[in-house]
Amino acid sequence: MFSAIARVFKTPDLRRKIWFTIAIIAIYRIGAFIPAPGVDYSAVQQCLALGTTEGGLYSFVNMFSGGALLQVSIFALGIMPYITAAIIVQLLRVVIPRFENLQREGPQGQSKLTQYTRYLTIALALLNATTLVSMVRTGALLGCDIPIITEDVLPVVLLMILSLVTGVALIMWLGEQITERGVGNGMSILIFVSIAAGFPGAMGEIWTTQGWRTFGTVMLIGLVTIAAVVFVEQSQRRVPVQYAKRQVGRRTVGGTSTYIPIKVNMAGVIPVIFASSVLMLPSVLAQFNQPGPGEEPSAFIQFIQTYFVGGTHPLYMAAFFLMTIFFTYFYVTITFNPNEVAENMRKFGGFIPGIRAGKPTESYLAYVISRITFPGALYLGLIALIPLIAFVLIGANQNFPFGGTSILIMVGVGLTTVKQINAQMEQRNYEGLLR
């Protein structure tokens, strides 16, 4: 293992890319602790010390920002506007033919979709920044009565909004620089770093509050969870494809055998994010419809506070599990089109042994997808419930380090990045990083 790592750093080009990636990561983490203009950093730390945000509504978003959201830093919005914009653009391919045509045009069309994603990211960042600053002014973000804005006047508020939007644009640029000149996908690397930044604090809190036995149990659960996630993420159903021989000019092409790799978890972490976002809406509605002084909360607010706030009620867990399964099927249906795959195979003379080309191939692929998606959806639902169950059993917060979106993203990004490094090593040496 250490010899393989040494070979990586002995390769000049690869070494330069890795150090460039590390430098970008350092800039990103430094920005997470620079307070936005007009924010009283000491007041923010006092509110955080009170623990009023522990396991709260915004802990999920705070995890994706590497703790920058609750620090009210210039990178407070983190990578979430870009993730949301990318998901929206991908979903719009289903309803807007123009987007679908751009996807089929290859690199040129993809660059156009990337440009649309950037514009939408800035628009969402402006909306999120305005909402965040409003919540900071009212104290709803940190749940603290201590004022954290030095001067609550219009120029300062506008400057805060501008700095937050600029922070999102800078993060997007840093991610693109990693993709072009570093190692791995830049946006995925920044998400990985944001989540990993919370691990030491979460594990230290478990050690301090729960003791070494609980800490050891959590570590054991973590290792088992990581092994299970790696196993499932690497699992795939290989549908064999045979290409017939064809005469192109004077050459004979085709006659080869290959396969279509269909992963057990084709949807990745997107269904968990969708389910979390939808179940977050009732809590948002409840927070913005609080009764006045001396008034009793309505029956709807009481229902939301009982069953959906906190995420520990069995009804919430059941809804989270079922919605994760639903969004898994929904996202797979959007991203994998059996008709398109069958048509491409027919054009190039490919067929699945024992299955006729055309409509039978499309039906067969749809059948395989529906069968393989079911265990993948169950797997995502169970992984997503791990932090909620941990909250009930050991009193951990909802950002339990080994479970849910955090472990899925970290393992997925880690596997992809290692594979890319291995591929670059094999281009330069007979031996890669992996054996």
UniProtKB/TrEMBL annotation:
InterPro entries hit by this protein: SecY, SecY/SEC61-alpha, SecY_CS, SecY_dom_sf
GO CC terms: plasma membrane
Organism: Nesterenkonia jeotgali
Organism ancestry: Bacteria, Bacillati, Actinomycetota, Actinomycetes, Micrococcales
Family designation: Belongs to the SecY/SEC61-alpha family.
Pfam families associated with the record: SecY (PF00344)
UniProt keyword terms in alphabetical order: Cell membrane, Membrane, Protein transport, Translocation, Transmembrane, Transmembrane helix, Transport
Listed name of the protein: Protein translocase subunit SecY
Membrane topology: Multi-pass membrane protein
Stretches that traverse the bilayer: 18-36, 68-95, 116-136, 156-175, 187-208, 214-232, 315-336, 377-394, 400-418
